[in-house]
Amino acid sequence: MRRTVNIGLLGLGTVGGGVVKLLEQNGRAIAQKLGRPLEIRRILVRDLNRSRAVKVPPELLTARAETILEDPDIHIIVEVMGGLEPAREYILKALRQGKSVVTANKDLLALYGKELFAAADAGGADLFFEASVGGGIPIVHSLKECLAGNRISRVMGIVNGTTNYILTKMSREEREFAEVLAEAQRLGYAEADPRSDIEGDDAARKMAILASIAFGTRVTYPEVYHEGIANLHPQDIKYAADLGYAIKLLGIAWDDGEAVEVRVHPALVPLTHPLASVGGAFNAIFVEGDAVGEAMFYGQGAGEMPTASAVVGDIMEAARNLIHGTRGRISCTCFTQKPIKPIEDIVTRYYLRMIVKDRPGVLAAIAGVFGERQVSLASVIQVGMVGEQAELVFITHLVRERNLREALEILEGLPVVNQIACVIRVEGGTAH
Ligand code: NAP
Ligand code: HSE
Questions:
Q1: Which of 73, 87, 325, 409 registers the highest number of CB atoms within 10 A of its CB?
Q2: Is the minimum distance from the CB of 201 to ligand 2 under 6 angstroms?
């Protein structure tokens, strides 16, 4: 076999450790598939003295990025350190020098994708990022290549493993939020700062990436409306289940031809819907294209080895392109710039829980406000009593979010309404 293809690994945490293990475990077969072996030449870490779950020869480790980025014998840079800086600086430097880059960094891509692709084009290098969305699920290449002939109208699914793990454990095992979050961190699913999982930022970044590829229009993370799961109450999970729904953190992207809608928030999903049964750290993503119809991608969305699977696949693709002199074939696929719909313009259904005075005429007063704002109710259930007050759950028909917000603002001012305790969108029905 001829020369090795040499890799500089930036980061040796959960994902970096997985990449080292996978290249060790399947190195022979990988070399046979490529016709050349892959070799990790250097590894950048922050702390040279930290004890590590994965054993590597100590001389491979460095805390100086230049020893990797400026080494002419390193052909592919694998960035699995995370965060915006210095990861952005290192990737730009590598690409401009013509070194191909594989990254799992959705934070960077969802904000600086355009700049990174321009650098890849300038350097004639590959920039691959399969692991940035869906962990081990091959969704990025599928959208960029296999489904490229379609006009994609919708991408919707569960794209954060940590929150899905938490919601699954809270609903199926009635466990506490904080305890399950700590478990997700131990299992390597959570981001270095888990607030980005919990508050929906991680999923918003992934939806920005998916929407950009699917619709050919650049969507950045700040443009994605997002809510997290921190304010969900266990009783809403229970009431939703009693009504025949699961609560999931959903990413939804829709292109109506004129504008795109991209949002992330908790949603009630009918228990009969395939997304309702996606449990633990699994992700599932529906894609709707004019030729393919509906396709669903399902698999482990986070964790050491599933993510390493995606990273190593990208390394092999970059190595093939290097070997065959075909680098830089697939760059940015955005070819247009469509407006992004404000959240107030979306049309969907809602689950609402209110604490109201338990007295005659209350329901009529509330229904009157909803009617005034064209919010039509599909069902109203009294789920319990809170002292002298009644706890009511409403499910609406399809309604424009602006109208719902106006109605809720008026309801908050009614003396009979003590609290609007919960508002969750209902998806997976006939929203569009
Ligand atoms: P991690 O466990 O926190 O590992 C980060 C690694 O990068 C550590 O080895 C750390 O060095 C090194 N590092 C960080 N900042 C550095 C700096 N400024 N200089 C030198 N080294 C630095 O993170 P991870 O979970 O592997 O995630 C890595 C990336 O993959 C992130 O972009 C994340 O969003 C993405 N991702 C993660 C998953 C997952 O399931 N975990 C899945 C998909 C994508 P020390 O070890 O010395 O601290
Ligand atoms: N923290 C992320 C998640 C890792 O839980 O989905 C995978 O991108």
A1: 87
A2: no
Report the pLDDT averaged over residues 387-393: 92
Ligand 2 and 282: CB distance under 6 A: no
| Domain of 186, in residue numbers | 147-299
CA of 163 to the centre of ligand 2 (A): 9
Question: Which CATH number is 410's domain given?
Answer: 3.30.70.260
Tell me: do 128 and 153 sit in the same domain.
no
Q: 329 lies in a domain?
A: no
Active site residue 99: no
**How many domains, in total, are found in the chain?**
3
How far, in Å, from the CA of 159 to the mean position of ligand 2?
8
Residue 246 tokens read as 């699961």
> 395 by DSSP, 3-state: which?
strand
19, 105, 111, 134, 180 from 311: Cα distances, Å:
7, 11, 20, 12, 27
Q: What residues pair up with 40 in beta bridges, in sequence order?
A: 7
Q: Which of 114, 206, 238, 248 is catalytic?
A: 206
Query: What's the pLDDT tens digit per position in 82-94?
Result: 999 999 999 999 9
